[in-house]
Amino acid sequence: MRYEIVPVTPFAQNCSVLACEETGRGAVVDPGGDLEKVHAAIARLGVDVEKILLTHAHIDHAGQTAALARELNVPIEGPHKGDQFWIDLLPSQGEMFGIPGGEVFEPTRWLEGGDKVGFGQVELEVRFCPGHTPGHVVFYSAADQLAFVGDCLFHGSIGRTDFPRGNHEQLLASIREQLFTLGDEVTFVPGHGPNSTMGVERRTNPFLAQ
Question: Which of 89, 151, 172, 186 could be stapled to 182 by a disulfide with Cβ–Cβ 3.0 to 4.6 Å?
Answer without folding.
Answer: 186
